[in-house]
Write a structure and sequence with these properties.
Elements lengths: L18 E3 L8 E3 L7 E9 L15 E4 L2 H12 L3 E6 L20 H18 E11 L4 H12 L4 E8 L5 H5 L7 E8 L11 E2 L17 E2 L3 E2 L28 H11 L5 E4 L6 H8 L3 E6 L2 H16 L7 H4 L6 E8 L12 E2 L12
Parallel strand pairs: 3-15, 4-13, 4-14, 5-6, 5-12, 7-11, 12-13
Antiparallel strand pairs: 1-2, 3-14, 6-8, 7-8, 9-10
Helix pairs in contact: 1-2, 2-3, 5-6, 6-7
The structure holds S-adenosylmethionine (SAM).
S-adenosylmethionine binds next to strand 13.
């Protein structure tokens, strides 16, 4: 046998090789033989301490919230991103059935179209990752097994590190009544790109009350986090969807908890590192990165979700978001970000430079890294 172990194993589906864009009838996802020309990412408005870059290219310094299809945005930003991203966390549509949102890439694509959609985007994100960087892909049982095989192909099977099982929370009502084992977990696939220094800070949970170490008393950092999350009494991390009174809720149907994303951001990146979330939704990754002093690029194609994310981040910048990991991170406000959009090839650019929105300037301030 020659080559790396597992090399040559490939998923096959009839439309493999085509790309997917939301330009079918009424903006529905449709196949194309090739991606459109890349276009440009232009600043729309700067918030807090950030400055926009009229007429110039993003230099990789400002935090970015970009509105647009992530495949096109990643292609446009690739000169700045390639090999520079320290951490990717994505929570794409799970393809688990309609959520009631009107969205071109709604959660119910034909299976092979979902694979075609993900193949192009995962390949771009893997290119953006630096050697030694980490990629986490959050899914559930609908597509996770196929995504594992696809990602093994893109990243190399040897790059796979862990499958994290996140138990969503307690069960009641309709879920508990199912005549079956109750479905109650998501899957997070964790990969590391070979060839560079790896960042990994171990996460410890507090020991249960009354815990005594056997033998000689020693220093104990706590209980090291396993690859099953929220699966024991000393690891409470229920999904915010089942916590009716969580102040963290934005109203976005598939929002994830800051505490969940924080485990990934805090273990696999350092202050000042660049984090990419190309399926950003209501901006949980961006909010966590801001509070943990990571730089971030958050891409989202739904304008309503981008508005929600921008409003959320303005509160973070102003020190007016007491929810999520604010206390744990000691966050009091500061920093800034730029809202940007993808300008398609051929469309004229903005006539006026974009002024920072000083209204979002922070009231409090957290120590800078
Ligand atoms: C499951 S949600 C992410 C939720 C997010 N983790 C949060 O905590 O709010 C997936 C998001 O991906 C967005 N999305 C789907 N396809 C996309 C694409 N091709 N480009 C950009 N965003 C996309 C959807 O609009 C949706 O907001």
């Amino acid at each position: 046998m020659s080559g790396a172990e597992g090399e040559g194993v490939r998923l096959a589906w009839p439309t493999r090789g085509l790309v997917v864009r939301a330009d079918g009838a009424q903006g529905a996802p449709a196949y194309r033989s090739e991606p459109p020309p890349p276009g440009r990412v232009e600043a729309v408005r700067a918030f807090g301490e950030a400055a926009a870059w009229p007429g110039d290219r993003w230099r990789g310094r400002e935090n970015l919230v970009v509105e647009g299809d992530n495949a096109d945005v990643l292609r446009a930003l690739m000169p700045e991103l390639e090999g520079r991203v320290d951490l990717v966390y994505i929570d794409p549509p799970f393809n688990s059935g309609p959520t009631g949102r009107r969205h071109p890439y709604e959660n119910a694509m034909p299976h092979e179209m979902w694979l075609a959609m993900m193949e192009e985007r995962l390949s771009l994100m893997w290119r953006a990752l630096r050697p030694g960087g980490s990629l986490y892909l959050h899914l559930d049982e609908n597509e996770s097994h196929y995504a594992k095989v696809l990602l093994d192909e893109i990243a190399g099977r040897q790059s796979f590190v862990r499958e994290i099982v996140w138990r969503i929370g307690w069960i009641s009502g309709y879920k508990a009544a199912q005549k079956n084992f109750v479905r109650n977990h998501d899957t997070i696939l964790y990969y590391i790109k070979p060839g560079g220094p790896v960042t990994f800070e171990k996460v410890y949970l507090p020991r249960p009350a009354g815990y005594r170490r056997r033998g000689a008393p020693g220093k104990s950092a706590g209980y090291p986090l396993e690859d099953t999350w929220n699966a024991s009494a000393n690891d409470p991390l229920h999904s915010i969807q089942i916590m009716s009174f969580s102040g963290e809720k934005t109203g976005f149907p598939t929002q994830k908890n800051e505490a969940l994303v924080d485990r990934i951001v805090s273990s696999s990146s350092r202050e000042g590192d660049l984090v990419l979330d190309a399926f950003a939704g209501s901006g949980t990754t961006a909010a966590v990165c801001h509070k943990r002093r990571r730089r971030y690029v958050a891409v989202e194609m739904d304008p309503a979700a981008v508005d929600l994310m921008v409003q959320r981040l303005i509160r973070v910048v102003r020190g007016e978001d007491p929810h999520g990991i604010t206390a744990a991170a000691g966050w009091r406000g500061g920093g800034g970000f730029v809202r940007a959009r993808l300008r398609p090839e051929g469309e004229a650019g903005p006539a006026e430079p974009v002024a920072p929105d000083r209204a979002a300037a922070p009231h409090g301030r957290s120590p800078r890294p």
